[in-house]
Amino acid sequence: MRIRHNDYEVDDDPGRVDQDAVVSLLAATDAYWERWRSPADLQAQIDTAWRVVGAYKRTDGSMVGFARAVSDGVAVAYLADVIVAPGARSAGLGIRLVDAMIEQGPGRGFRWMLHTKDAHGRVCCRNR
């Protein structure tokens, strides 16, 4: 699945995910939920994720956003990471990442969960 959005592209190809870019995204935003993860832990989480979705600049393909989910593959999914680079914010990418993950993927009818102590932007998850 590839979705064009202005100067960006949202893609669910796990082979396209750049772990170094994800580490940089998490560090650049001082994400509170990533502080305990080593690069090896993060790679294991990406490798074993039920689904990953990335956002990329159309001009050079560099990764500017990332979302990761874990699931039982039947009814329930947990949105574990959603991150957008500071320079790419306010372009609707967070919403596009979540939409691609939930509405455009195999978990469309699942019950989704997200635990957060803060919410940036206007991301909304609903139960079906």
UniProtKB/TrEMBL annotation:
Residues 1-128 form the N-acetyltransferase domain. Keywords: Transferase. CDD domains: NAT_SF. InterPro entries: Acetyltransferase_Butenolide, Acyl_CoA_acyltransferase, GNAT_dom. Pfam families: Acetyltransf_1. Gene3D superfamilies: 3.40.630.30. One of its GO terms (molecular function) is acyltransferase activity, transferring groups other than amino-acyl groups. This is GNAT family N-acetyltransferase.
